[in-house]
Amino acid sequence: MSDHDQLFSQMNDRSREVFRRVVEGYLDSGEPVGSRSLTRTLSEQVSAATIRNVMQDLEFLGLLDSPHVSAGRIPTQLGLRMFVDGLLEVRDLDENDREKLDATMGSNTQDVGGLLDRVGSALSGVTHGASLVLTPKHEAPLKHVEFVSLSQDKALVVIVFADGHVENRLFTPPPGQTPSSMREAANFLNAFAEGRTLSELQTVMTHEIKRRRQELDSLAAQLVENGIASWSSDTDNSARLIVRGRANLLGEETAEDELERIRELFDDLERKRDIAEFLELTEAGEGVRIFIGSENKLFSLSGSSLVVSPYMNADRKIVGAVGVIGPTRLNYGRIVPIVDYTAQLVGRLITDR
After folding, report:
1. Same domain, residue pair 228 and 258
2. 29: which of 1, 41, 88, 266 is 20 to 30 A away, CA to CA?
């Protein structure tokens, strides 16, 4: 028997209904819910005093809390978790929301990054939260590779993909590089690059450098090796994180200490700390997952909630995730179908391309 089931078994129909009404009222308004307002909405006629007793019992069970300034109650994190797992009624996707999300897919651009960018903006616009889109590794076939010298100890390797996507990686070239060794390195790479994906090219190049080291200038060979190393070690190659709508979490009424915590959350997101781990969490199961406050260490500090769903490519392999970040009092019933639908849209978009 899980902790939630045990708690449920300690609640009768009346206390379950009071609990549900308090949580729904709080999620709706953001305000503590008092016994007086509940006497008007409960299905059976009971006194405010009876409701107060029920609320005290729910507080004793750790499901409700009373802020100092108010006679009303708000759900605790445990209460929210129990509500989301057992009592949440997920609505159908609103037609208006569906149209706004569909409109982002209407563009016929081939740039997946740009499209996902717009998906993120639409998602944050529709939900009034911040959106998070974890994009897949770019695995399109290559068209061309170029080396550009920036200084003695800095060079760029520029990768042009067949679908028009361009990526630059900064790396440290071997000392003593010359324009001709850079040209030779690029020519050598381009002889194998076209039509192969990055990971395929890396495998081939490692083999070819060993095989043809004699005929390849040693500087050029080092350039190729250092350039390849910059691809494989760069974490950006595994995924890109797009976060849109952060202003939505920073309303005028946001308290100073809360502002600081939200800023730290975004700093963490921008540093991609825990993102790989976070993808693993979504991979643990298909469909929408809800993380409330400290259940995920990435979001614990800011006290935010995250509603997230993985999306898949044509081979049914999870390649990324889309989600909405907001205060723990998110309208979960509305947000869950939006996130679910967006993940399906993005999966189709990735598959079509």
Report:
1. no
2. 266
